[in-house]
């Protein structure tokens, strides 16, 4: 959680196909990602919450998406070229169980103890640092 990792490749084709099949809702990334996880993906995937860094304009936003060991699926922003910074991730099983138990999403916003944790602040600092690198032209 909140640790710097090598950016995984986003599977744009899979992201677009699932986005179309699920009729995703604009500005509903957490809902869309959980729906993709429990209906289109399998136990090898995890639900992630954290930040995305956009390159034009250079900003970061809270976001939800799915990841496996190899790749990212983002059904809300399937074609965008983004950098993903994870604050928290949940296994397929934990996500499914929490949805059945009427979990409030996004977890980052509905759990004050987590929002005040080091994981949230580490991810936030990472996203801010990536934005600064983009502004300086260090990352293209």
Shape: globular
SS element count, helices = 6
What is the SS-derived class? alpha+beta
Over all CA atoms, what is the radius of gyration? 14 Å
- Which band does the percent of strand residues land in? 15-25%
Main sheet attributes: strand count, strand direction, barrel closure: 5 strands, mixed
Mean pLDDT: 89
Strand order of the largest sheet: 1-4-3-2-5
| Helix content estimate | 40-55%
Tally the structural domains.
1
What is the H/E string?
Answer: EHHEEEEHHHH
- pLDDT below 50 for ≥5 consecutive residues: which ranges? none
Q: What gap, in angstroms, lies between the N and C termini?
A: 25 Å
Q: Quick one: how many beta strands?
A: 5
How would you concisely characterize the structure shown here?
The chain is 41% helix and 24% strand.
């Amino acid at each position: 959680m909140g640790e710097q990792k090598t950016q995984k490749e986003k599977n744009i084709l899979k992201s677009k196909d699932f986005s179309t099949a699920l009729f995703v809702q604009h500005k509903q990334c957490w809902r869309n990602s959980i729906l993709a996880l429990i209906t289109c993906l399998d136990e090898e995937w995890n639900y992630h919450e954290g930040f995305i860094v956009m390159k034009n304009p250079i900003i970061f936003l809270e976001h939800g998406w799915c990841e496996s060991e190899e790749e990212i699926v983002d059904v809300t922003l399937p074609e965008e070229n983004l950098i993903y910074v994870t604050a928290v991730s949940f296994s397929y099983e934990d996500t499914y169980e929490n949805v059945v138990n009427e979990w409030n999403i996004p977890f980052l916003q509905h759990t004050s103890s987590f929002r005040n944790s080091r994981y949230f602040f580490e991810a936030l600092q990472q996203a801010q640092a990536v934005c600064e690198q983009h502004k300086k032209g260090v990352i293209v």
